[in-house]
Amino acid sequence: MSATTDHAGSPLQFPCRFPIKAMGRSGGGLREAVEAIVRAHVPAEDVHELRERESRHGGYVSVTAVITARSRAQLDAIYLALSECSQVMMRL
Asked: What pTM does this model have?
């Protein structure tokens, strides 16, 4: 499969490995929510890593999913779903 861009001026070449990070409060089910969103938009073989990290004082957690992104539209759909998720306070 050849690499393509799908938006003029976009520096991304698809397919590409792409980290998606979401942050929220500890104990609020963030990992499960992020995993469900990612799996709804990404085939299982394109999810390479899902890791969680607590903040220094334990009040917050970040979840990072490393995926193979196939298009800008796919990434946009994931970020829109994360924006609508009540457990997500911030996404990168």
From this structure: 0.87
